[in-house]
């Protein structure tokens, strides 16, 4: 079956390590769009973070943000869907984790990703590239204010534990009602139950009338694994984490060697030859 949609992670996959879109990658994306293939960024970023590189990449259509929790059209602003972590769920998780692991801090990302409610002390741990936000602008809120309303993405971070270490503690809570993943950033990302990049991609494809067998997906991190496994063709870049490598059907070059572009170029060449 021909590829009708390309779903690509951004950081560590499409973007080079300096967060740029190379000229080769832009040319490949443009060629795919000219061949009537939908090109969709599928990212942990919120829309504001996608817009920072949208012009470089030529993204003007649908984007899947917040690890698949939020489907939004970059051109029209239309929201296709949003999935929230409920307030009672994140409250139960937060209090249980604090009891188990004092010092953990939380953020609630709300209202289409535009509202970022960080617990007091979180900004001191953060850098701009963590959330595409200046730490000085994050402010600091009491935990009750962070937990008060549902979150598109509920973030947890500890000053002394890596995301993988923190993940083991979250799993040990054995609490229901949420999904949890990480993207290589120094924090965990809690989503509504069942939500993943694959979850969001499946809904977008249903909206567009595109079968999963007609989807080519690219990724590099643990939060890409469900998408790589779900797509008809899942490709991990050469710098991918072991989880992403295991989930993918094949391997391409690293992000800094334009691995995504290399696969698209071959795909289009084979299509024109056929």
Automatic annotation (TrEMBL):
Hydrolase among keywords: yes
A Gene Ontology molecular function term of the record: phosphatase activity
Gene3D superfamilies: 3.30.1240.10, HAD superfamily/HAD-like (3.40.50.1000)
Keywords: Hydrolase
Domain of life: Bacteria
One GO CC term, this protein: cytosol
InterPro entries listed in its UniProt record: Cof, HAD-like_sf, HAD-SF_hydro_IIB, HAD_sf
NCBIfam families noted in UniProt: Cof-subfamily, HAD-SF-IIB
Protein's name in the database: Hydrolase
